[in-house]
Task: structure prediction
Amino acid sequence: MDNESPAKAILVVTVTALLCSILVSSAAVFLQPLQKAYADIERIRYLVQLSGLVDSDADLSEFAIVSAYQDVTPRLIDLETGSFDQNLDPQSFEDPDTADELQQLVSIPAELDSARLELRPRWISVYQVETDSALPRLIFPIYGQGMWSTIYGYLALEGDLNTIADVVFYEHEETAGIGDQIQRPAWLVGWRGKKLYDEQGQLQFDIGSIDVDSPEYDYRVDGIAGATVTVDGVADLVRYWFGPHGYAPFISRFDAGQER
Ligand SMILES: Cc1cc2nc3c(=O)[nH]c(=O)nc-3n(C[C@H](O)[C@H](O)[C@H](O)COP(=O)(O)O)c2cc1C
Result:
C-alpha cells in the first residue's frame, strides 16, 4: 500500500487506537486490586501490621503496605455453616453498594450477646496470610460495645487457630486517656501468645488480674486500672466472636481438618 494513501493512514490510526485501548483496558483490569488496596489504605494498614509479614512496629509507606497486602487474602466465612463460602466473592461484601444487597443480618440470642450487638452479619471476611506455612495465620474482625461506643478491631490467630498472634483496636469513642488505653502498644503486646481455648476446646479467654502461677494465666490478658468498663467490653466482645454464635463453629471444623 502506498505510504501516501489515505486508506493506509486510516488503517494505521485504527490499529494504533485499538492497541492502545486494549493496553489501557488490560491495565485497568490488572491494576484494579492495587487501586482498591490504595483506597482502603487505612484499614489494610492494620491487617498488614497483624499479618506477621512486616515488623508490626515499623512506620510503613503506603507502597510497602499495599505490597505486603498482596499476600493477605480475604476469605468469606459463612457463620451459619461455620465454613468458608466458596461461591460468593469476598470483594462484593467489602463494597458497600453490593454488600447491602447480599448480606443477611442475623439476630443474636440475648444470652449469647455479650458484645451487645443484637445483630451480626451472616457472612464475614477473615484474612488469610499467604506464607509457605501449611497452617497460615488468620485475621478475624471483632467488634462490640465498650463503655461509650462500639469498639472495632482485628485479632490475628496463629495457624493453630487458638494462639493469639496479635490484636489491634482501630476505631472507638472511649474516653481519651482512660478507655483509649486499649490502643496502647505496651498493653496490646500482652495479648501475644495467649490462648483462647483450653485442651477441651472450652473458651477460656478473659481479661483481668493475672497470677503467673494460676492455670488461667495462659488465657488471661492483664487489665487496665481505671478503665475496667471498656476492658470488660473488650473481653466480652472477644468472647462473643470466638464463642458458639461467632467463629467457634468454624474453628471446630478447622480443628477437625474440614476447613483449609
Ligand atoms: C468522664 C468519665 C469518663 C470515663 N471514661 C471511661 C472510659 O472510657 N472507659 C472506662 O473503662 N472507664 C471510664 N471511666 C471510669 C469508669 O466510670 C470506671 O470508674 C472505671 O472503668 C472503673 O475502672 P477500675 O475498676 O479499674 O477503677 C470514666 C469516668 C468518667 C468520670
User: Anything to note?
Assistant: The two ends are 61 Å apart (CA to CA).
